[in-house]
Amino acid sequence: MFDESSACKMMKKTFEIKASDSDSSARTGIIHTQHGTIETPAFAPVASQGTVKGLPHSLLQNLGAQLMLVNAYHLYLRPGVETISRLGGIHSFISWQKPVLSDSGGFQIYSLSPLVKVKKEGVEFSSHLDGTKIFLSPEDVVDIQTRLCSDIIMALDHFHPFPSSEEKVKEAVKLTTHWAQRSKTHFLQQDSSQLLWGITQGSVYWNLRKQSIEDLLKIDFDGYALGGLGIGEPKSQFAEITERADSLLPKEKPRYLMGIGYISDILEAVERGIDFFDCVLPTRNARNGTLFTSKGKIVIKNVKYAQDQRPLDEDCSCYTCQNFSRAYLRHLYERQEISSAILNTIHNLHFYLDIFRKIRQSIQSNAYNRFKRNIIKQREE
Fold first, then answer.
1. Is 278 a catalytic residue?
2. Does 215 participate in catalysis according to the annotation?
3. pLDDT-derived band of residue 4, with 50, 70 and 90 as boundaries?
């Protein structure tokens, strides 16, 4: 019989830095988890409901995905934590034996804002499914993720959309710190060795971002995320925040830039010492017919591809590019065939995961800046 009480217990190991680029803050490392290691810089495909849309797990593994990102809020609603816990935890439930990171639901406070009331005690959601009132405290969110048995769990956080006044952002930073302390205190009371990461906020106000980082460093998390970026702020401010955060975030802990998916942004962030990324961009765009290639993006529905015999990317070794033409992929998309989403998702995720493999190789070869320049040049040609 499955022993639920032992599902999340393990010997906690530290993050190891394996190589550093001499001309930037880029580095490679290894995050140790109960379900294996994660080589960084790493990209986590988003599997909010326990699956990457359009792909069975076997194909995701064949693409080289090191982990999945699931969403605690959505899994809490359906099928429910009790069900997942009773069936052995998230790895057993979804039959995925590699690492899993669970997001806390802080992004849903933002994305479902008309249905949310934020209080010091926690968050009241009106379920987007049937309107049922749900109250979740920071402690509740820790409990949900502890019972899911995800390898990396995130503390509950709060941020306002860009642009927001400095006063509103200051209030969100204060609340995020308050919730972070409660999350860590409650987590320490659990008999679990999962990794708990904290999320810094502050939007583009460096004084507030600095305060958030310093406050969370005092709480002492296993990793640190930069949240509330990539939601419309100017690229110059995005770069400034990641640049200045590099000098404050501890070198011996992994750094996570949440929700960032544009390749140019990822390259800039890696240069500034970021280790970990997630985004729906490659999979959502795949389903919507936008494909990423070494020469830029292709919108496959465009009529100019109707008789194009070339693969999406002649330099790509994915199953889609090795077997199918742009004309056929356009035909599938136009006919709304399920295989369109599958083949497009295979390509986009292969493209992203291959970029991350090459990022790691370039850092190990102490040639990251040259690699970055070549990628940008190729995409501009």
1. yes
2. no
3. very low
